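Q: What does the assembly look like in three dimensions?
Context provided by user:
Components: four
Sequences:
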Amino acid sequence: MLLWLKEPDKNFPAQGAHIPKGVNFVGGVCVGDIQEKAGLSQSTVSSYLNMMQKAGLLESFRYGQWTYYRRNEDTIQALAEEIRTNI
Amino acid sequence: MLLWLKEPDKNFPAQGAHIPKGVNFVGGVCVGDIQEKAGLSQSTVSSYLNMMQKAGLLESFRYGQWTYYRRNEDTIQALAEEIRTNI
DNA sequence: TTGACATATCGAGAAATCCCGATATACAAT
DNA sequence: ATTGTATATCGGGATTTCTCGATATGTCAA
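A: Here is the predicted structure of the complete assembly.
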């Protein structure tokens, strides 16, 4: 999922249909689309995304009944760097 | 264990008492010393080390009844780099 | 307010991983 | 040959992770 979210346009249908005007949350993908691509149950995908958000790897914004997730590049890169230097 | 093996001198007793003259395997630590430090059973540690060796993260050499393991920096660094660039 | 939809949470079975004791193997010293 | 020591392998119980269906929560539209 993390890798898919590197290229949302390539891996998911166009997003933002339910995002209100004036809001800026580029690169976010709603749970349903991620779930469909993953082929896992809705509950599984929802909880994975939630975990990754709590871990800081993703950030999420809710618009109405939709929740959009996108990568938090800062923490992802920090983690990658941490691994690379300390492993 | 991987991290301990970054600094064998610091984390383990002096090695090489059973390594024959003329052989060059610096930085290797025998299973028994790793097991003692880990506080896990002998079988567990042995199998972990074996797995890591099969995965390419460690290399091992046997001298008599002793097996010495040390880090394979090349593959470890390659893995780290792979993670950093593709995550 | 009711019904429909998107997502979140809960409880639990299936599968994988962790880790052990018992035993096998390999080598060294007697 | 036999014994002792270091490591490897095997079988299985305990724990954790994975994943699901059922249900709850929140939101929109009629």
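Follow-up: Helices of chain A lie at 8-11, 31-38, 42-54, 73-86.
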